[in-house]
Request: fold
Amino acid sequence: MTAGAPSGPAPEPVDVEALRARLGGRSPRIALVLGSGLGALAASIEDAIRIPYAEIPNFPQSAVTGHSGELVAGRLSGVEVIALSGRVHYYETGDSAAMRPALEALKGLGIRVLVLTNAAGSLKPELRPGDVMLIEDHIAFSGRNPLIGEPSDARFTGMTAAYDEDLRAAMLAAAETEDVKLRSGVYMWFSGPSFETPAEVRVARLLGADAVGMSTVPETILARFLGLKVVAASVVTNYGAGMTGAELSHEETKAVAPTGGATLARILKSALPAFRA
Ligand code: HPA
Reply:
């Protein structure tokens, strides 16, 4: 699809049975989408089977540096999981439904809970680079919706409780157990790939956002459409544009993300056994 084109009908599906055959009898119910900084978590999955996206026909692939592209199935804290190490972003294709075949494949494999992670810019002085924010709600500021073109009535997906309350409670309890700070907040989706302007960051703050980023929201919408429970968290890599005077960069995102990523990995490992999938 060309850049800027509206989301169209769903792209070609992934062959779920072919993928299942490669999982060696595993039947996980929890999947994690690992954004910037969470790569190390994929490495700590035990008894892992790693399948590069390139080996899964029709699986969406990202070409963003700092994001690998493989599906990792195994155990984390004793819990069967699938981790997607790397995801395709709206800004790579102009298609906000680009992750749909991946999420449909997860659903087909029996996944019930989707854990989404990302890197984000903070809009609040108290939310510092290196901190982690639990997403309690979002604002789809890009205006794009991945369900545009979906013909079924299921497209009218309710988003009142998009981020599951029980799963969020499990994350907050895990953060307390681990003695790490975890603030809840609202994530605002800008399309990217350019960063926001200082004026846009002021608007985001006025509209009630706590963090800004370039992913996650389309996946949350698609996941809720598919009936998956969602829990999501942001690793803060910087203050929003104009808040400090410093220019923003992808290098900074990649350099800072692993710090908060390690904290988020600790919280997730501690929370996973409490996730009711
Ligand atoms: N804006 C958007 N996306 C981001 C940012 C930001 O400031 N930091 C990391 N990802």
In short: DSSP finds eight helices and nine strands in the chain.
